[in-house]
Design brief:
The structure is a single chain. With 534 residues, this protein is an alpha+beta fold. The chain is 45% helix and 12% strand. Strand 2 and strand 3 form a beta hairpin. The longest helix has 33 residues. It is globular and about 60 Å long. It starts with a helix and ends in a 5-residue tail after the last helix.
Length: 534
């Protein structure tokens, strides 16, 4: 069996190495001309041409380092597994260049609305957003950044907080940030904290997709440096979402403030549902549609749990918050029979099928709020939550999600009683690999690893085209930051018993959003990487 696993691992490593060599070859050809160690964000799989963005008559060849963090993890992991230093060296060169040439004050020129144009050799930004720094569930590869430069990494993380936090006493922050106009006196962490109750009125947008990036960054800084002040603020921000928990259901909200933008709008839930749901008095922090729940218990949950494990005893509050969310939403919002996660008010009221009487942020008048299928990322999060807590309810959710994603039945509990996995599954989702590896850690039974290898083969068969990873043969564009090769390396490392040596992946993903000529504001994910032809 071990020989078979080693053979399987070798195959996955070979495919990822082939992919990385292909990209590096394209990279070196371009670098010979322009001398830049920066990578293009994506490519047309057949023509090999890099992704280009049309902005106000200009054509940008996008290179957004925030949209390449999992590519950097792939390179770093590949060097660790193969012993070939060229992959890690390419990753480090990119980060080193960014620290020296892509600074935005002490921030970096990257994220949701900032990028670099390889063709024009200049930094660019979304014209409809301005030069705004934004991270939303990106969770950068801080370990590599710190290895390249401890000083610059600390400076970036502190600037990240300093430029986004509007009011330290309440921890109100904005998803958009610019370099602080005036440097902080003393250290950035020397501020007073007097939070008060949640759902206060402010101008910030305290979404958890942004907040999780902030507390993840500060938590990592503590991990590297032992800075207790950074850890304290990370815990405080994490705790602000806990402050929103409904005392009966335990469900927390997507944000902890009521956002009112002067001259623009008020709270979006109040504007759209204030009359229709008057009896519940909804605000954005108490109304969660399915995609928001996906972030709360999915990406934000995984980031909390990965951070918690990396910090040891100091990280326990992050894991506890994640498990509390998983339990509450698993109890009230998740339906195992259908594998659906329902839109909710945090008081326990399901909103599936609610026909909207007014148009607004949540949809158009006449449309109905919809539930969404619990995908492999949620399966991964619930499996990790179960491993950390042993809560039976979380296993019930794992069981429903595994069935709902075509993986068969994991059984009544972790012992495997009644387990019947589906080895004929055609599931090709890279998050499924991470979910099954988590279940393997939970139960220690090799059939989960065997099923993960089948999913790995599905990924290759259905999505490895022209030397790139794409979702399917109908997807013409390949995203450099594909999670597929990283999943295959984690799977290979598990097969040979060295996965614990690889840098952790916590579900982060990336996007670039900007006005595109003729289309208006759109994200690259939708414009290129989710686009299908034929």
């Amino acid at each position: 069996m071990q020989t078979s696993r080693t053979t399987q691992a070798d195959r996955f490593i070979h495919i990822v190495k082939q992919y990385a060599d292909h990209v590096l070859q394209l990279h070196e050809r371009r670098r010979e001309k322009d001398g830049l160690p920066l990578f293009a964000d994506g490519f047309h799989a057949e023509t090999k041409e890099p992704v280009q963005w049309l902005s106000e008559g200009e054509t940008w060849t996008l290179s957004n380092l925030a949209s390449q963090q999992n590519w950097l993890r792939t390179l770093y992991s590949l060097s660790h597994i193969t012993g070939e230093e060229k992959y890690r060296s390419a990753a480090k060169d990119t980060v080193d260049y960014a620290f020296k040439h892509l600074r935005y004050g002490s921030l970096l020129h990257w994220g949701g609305h900032l990028a670099y144009d390889l063709a024009g050799k200049r930094t660019v930004y979304a014209p409809d957003k301005g030069p705004q720094h934004e991270l939303k569930c990106h969770y950068p590869f801080y370990e590599l950044m710190y290895e390249v430069s401890p000083e610059e990494t600390r400076a970036y993380i502190e600037a990240f907080w300093d430029s986004h936090v509007l009011d330290w006493s309440s921890l109100e922050f904005s998803r958009h940030g610019k370099p602080a106009a005036e440097p902080s006196e003393g250290t950035v962490w020397d501020r007073d904290y007097a939070p008060g109750d949640p759902f206060f009125t402010g101008t910030g947008l305290t979404f958890i997709n942004c907040g999780s990036d902030l507390y993840y960054a500060a938590g990592q800084l503590y991990r590297f440096t032992g800075d207790e002040k950074a850890l304290a603020w990370a815990k405080r921000l994490n705790g602000r979402y806990g402050d929103t928990r409904n005392p009966v259901t335990g469900m927390s909200g997507y944000q902890f403030s009521i956002s009112v933008l002067p001259g623009v709008r008020g709270d979006r839930a109040v504007e759209q549902f204030g009359e229709q749901l008057r009896a519940h008095q909804p605000v954005e922090g108490t109304l969660s549609v399915a995609r928001q729940i996906h972030t709360i218990v999915g990406k934000a949950g995984i980031s909390r749990m990965v951070l918690a494990e990396s910090l040891g005893e100091a990280g326990k509050p992050f894991a506890e918050s994640a498990v509390d969310d998983l339990l509450a939403y698993g109890r009230y919002a998740y339906e195992s029979e259908t594998n659906l996660m329902h839109p909710m008010l945090t008081n326990g009221t399901r909103l599936t099928g609610l026909v909207m009487e007014r148009s607004g942020y949540y949809g158009k008048q006449g449309e109905a709020l919809q539930a969404m299928s619990a995908d492999p990322l949620l399966l991964w999060s619930y499996a990790m939550g179960y491993r950390l807590s042993g809560e039976p309810l979380l296993w019930e959710c794992v069981r429903g999600m595994a069935k709902g994603n075509g993986l068969g039945d994991p059984g009544l509990d972790r012992t495997g009683e009644g387990r019947s996995l589906d080895y004929a599954t055609d599931n090709p989702n890279p998050y499924t690999v991470f979910a099954l590896l988590e279940l393997y850690r939970v139960a220690g039974q090799t059939d989960y690893l065997e099923l993960a290898c089948i999913v790995g083969e599905n990924i290759i068969r259905q999505g490895y085209r022209h030397g790139f990873f794409v979702p399917s043969e109908r997807h013409p564009y390949a995203k450099l930051d594909s999670i597929a090769p990283l999943a295959l390396l984690h799977l290979a490392a598990e097969c040979i018993g060295t996965r614990h040596e690889l840098p952790a992946f916590c579900g982060g993903s990336a996007f670039f959003g900007s006005a595109y000529d003729g289309l208006g504001h759109i994200e690259d994910q939708r414009l290129f990487y989710l686009r299908t032809e034929g």
